[in-house]
Every structure is written in C-alpha cells, then in structure tokens.
Amino acid sequence: MKLTRRTVLKISGLTTVIVALLPRMAFAARNTLRTVRTGIQPGNKTRLVIETAERPSYSLSYEPNKLIVTLSNTAANTALAPAMAAGTLVTAITQAQSGDKLQIIADLAKPIDEIPRDNILMLNPNGDNDYRLVLDFTAGSGAATAATATTTTTTTAPKKSTKPTRKYIVVIDAGHGGKDPGCIGKGGTQEKTVVLSVAKKLKNKLDAAGFQTYLTRSNDTYLKLAQRAAIGEKKHADLFLSLHANANPSRAMQGFSIYTLSEKASDEEAAKLADAENAADKIDVSGFEQFDKDIRIALSSLQQHAVAEMSVEYANGCASAFKRAKITQQPGPDVRHAPFAVLRSTVPGALIELGHLSNAAEEKLLKSSAHQDKLVAAIVKSVQGYNFDV
C-alpha cells in the first residue's frame, strides 16, 4: 500500500488515522500566534504583548540581551510582522519553532533582570483581542540568565494588593456642571449634583485607602471635556474615572453601566450615549486637535491600544465589584465601548453611569446618601483590585 500524507486503515470496525510524512508541529500544535507588539509604559517600561488564539502556557528564559518566551503547543506565524514601537528596549523580534513549542525571541538593546511576577499579566479576550500575554520590563544588571529561567504557567493569576505599593494617582471626574445640568429626573434631580456628591465621597474614601486623588471639579463649575481629560494628563494620573447618571426613553430602564473609549461603539445604545455626553461642548471626537502635539503622538498606535487594554481591565473589575455589591446592572454586557471625548487621553480610564435618573425608583436611590455610599464602596474595591503595575 502506498503511504500518503493521510492513510486511513480500518481495523476491526474502528477507523485509525495515521498521519505520516508531517513534522510533529503540524498536528501537535493547537494554539495560534495572532500578533506580537511592543510599547512604552509609565516609568519608561518596555511592554511586550504576545496575542494568541487560545490561552497560552508559557515559560521565560534570559540570555545576554535577549528575552525568550516559549509557548507550548503553538504554531509559528511566519506571515506575522511584529508591530515595533519606537523607544523600547526591544530591537528585533523573531520566531523559532521547535517541535510543538514556539519561541518568541526579543533582542534587547540592554540587558534586563528577571521580570517580576507582578509585571506579567494574562488578559482574557475582549472586543477584537484574543488572549494576551503582557510583559513589562526595564533595563537591569542582566543578572538573569538562561540557567535561571523562570517557568510560568497561566494557572496562577498576578497577585493583587489591596493596598497600593505607592500612591497611585486617581482623577475623579464629576460629569457636567455649571450651565450643563446633565440629565434631570422626573423629580427634578440633576445629574451634575448627584455625581459631584458621589465624586467627593469617593475622593475621601480613596484618600483614606492610600491613593492620591484629584477632582476635575469640586463645585458647580462647567468644564469642557478636553479640559477634564487634560487634568488627568497634567496630574500624571494612573486611572481616570468619569462619573455620570443616565437617562432612557423607557422609564423602566435602570441599573449601572460602564464604558471605555473606542473609535467604534460596541452597540447602538453606546453610540447614542457617547453622542449625548460629547454634546456637552460639541467636541470633534474624531480628531485630536484639542491636545498638545506630544499627547496626539502618544495617543496613536500602540500607546492607544495599550491604554485601551488597561481601561477594559479596570472596567471589567469595576463591573464585577458592582455586581458583588448587589447593585442593579443595566441589561447588556458588563462593559461597553464608545468614542467618549472625556476618555480620550493617555490615561487608562472608564466612564461609569451610576444609574438612571429617568427611572423614578432609581432617582430616589441616587439621591440617597446610603446608596451613594454603596456605589462609592464598590468603586473603591474596584480601584484597590486594579493592577496598576501592568
């Protein structure tokens, strides 16, 4: 019998498939490499992001001026061109296949030490992204060598401290204000008043928890959306939270919702909400003209992508904290995305709709000090659970 690439033999009524004349990798590798990219993070850290179709099992090893990431059961993607950002420690990225293992080899301009576990993050799929292994590192003594390779699997999540290791900076934006009341409930409750009250309480709680916080407004003041975003930039914030209350044509609609920045809205409702919020000062959300040149550059390409990833990570954690606190959620996904002008910056952040003033019962809740305290407690937990270091 002539042996072909796939020879099927029927033995005792069972079908046995014998795969011949193929390298082991061709049938053993189950995962697929999607993208590899680099970027710059605060603290002059280099970020290496490896995106795969399935959750990868990986190990790290170090050679002089090289970082090697070995992915198990993964096939090379020879057509892939790494997206390389300027100013990182990575000078080149190559792939090497060894059986069913794929090595991602990053050539480095300077040696690095072994990457701390807290600087390694595994991100779950969201939007257009698959699984992402995120590695952040800086130049070091080069003490790490191949002999001291660190093997890390994805079964252990990064340790998250409930207390900040340094005073992380959080900017809290109370939406609307001054001549812009925001939405108004049937009982006359103004959005600008509710969110300012929550913002002040949140600042006090986060300050007490060891964070350094700033308010974009501390009184009934009108600010343009670009001014609010610029405060986050000026304060070198690690996280930007914009607080709002919602309105809906259906008086029955209620619950919180959380949004992050995206050029394309995740759904029609998110698009309409972004249009309504952006109408506060008619910002042109498709351009960056309101920002300084260096910020416009930073908003481009990989930096913008990295900020979006970190924002979604926070937003998912925030939604979980709200649900654990048994705060009613608006029907739909945990996190939505839309082109909110107030979030357009180099600072990771989210827009939190605390509830619906258009719903009579929720209007009463949003006015109550007890419910505001409940909202604040959930947000504090989400900030404490956020991994600022990655």
Secondary structure blueprint with pairings:
Layout: E1 6-11, E2 14-19, H1 24-28, E3 31-41, E4 45-52, E5 58-63, E6 66-71, E7 74-75, E8 90-98, E9 101-108, E10 120-123, E11 131-137, E12 150-152, E13 169-174, H2 191-208, E14 212-215, H3 225-234, E15 239-246, E16 257-261, H4 268-278, H5 293-298, H6 301-324, E17 335-338, E18 349-356, H7 360-367, H8 369-385
Helix pairs in contact: 2-8, 6-8
Structure in words:
This protein has a 6-stranded mixed β-sheet, sandwiched between helices. Strands 7-3-4-11-10 form a 5-stranded mixed β-sheet. Strands 8-9-6-5-12 form a 5-stranded antiparallel β-sheet, with no helix packed on it. It is an alpha/beta fold. The model is unreliable at 1-29, 145-162 and 280-302 (pLDDT under 50). It has 2 domains: 25-152, Immunoglobulin-like, CATH 2.60.40; 169-385, Aminopeptidase (3-Layer(aba) Sandwich). The protein has helices at residues 24-28, 191-208, 225-234, 268-278, 293-298, 301-324, 360-367, 369-385; strands at residues 6-11, 14-19, 31-41, 45-52, 58-63, 66-71, 74-75, 90-98, 101-108, 120-123, 131-137, 150-152, 169-174, 212-215, 239-246, 257-261, 335-338, 349-356. The termini are far apart.
The biggest beta sheet reads: 6 strands, mixed
What is the CATH level 1 assignment of the largest domain?
A: Alpha Beta
- Figure out the total of helices: 8
Instruction: Briefly note the structural class of the backbone.
Output: alpha/beta
What pattern of helices and strands is seen along the backbone? EEHEEEEEEEEEEEHEHEEHHHEEHH
Q: Which descriptor suits the 3D outline?
A: elongated
CATH superfamily grouping of the largest domain: Zn-dependent exopeptidases
Number of domains: 2
Q: How many strands?
A: 18
Give the integer mean of the pLDDT values: 79
Q: State the CATH architecture of the largest domain.
A: 3-Layer(aba) Sandwich
Spatial separation of the terminal alpha carbons: 58 Å
What amount of the residues lies in strands? 25-35%
CATH topology of the largest domain: Aminopeptidase
Q: Stretches where pLDDT falls below 50 for ≥5 residues?
A: 1-29, 145-162, 280-302
The portion of residues assigned to helices is 25-40%
In which order are the strands of the major sheet placed?
14-13-15-18-16-17
> For the CA atoms, what is the radius of gyration?
24 Å
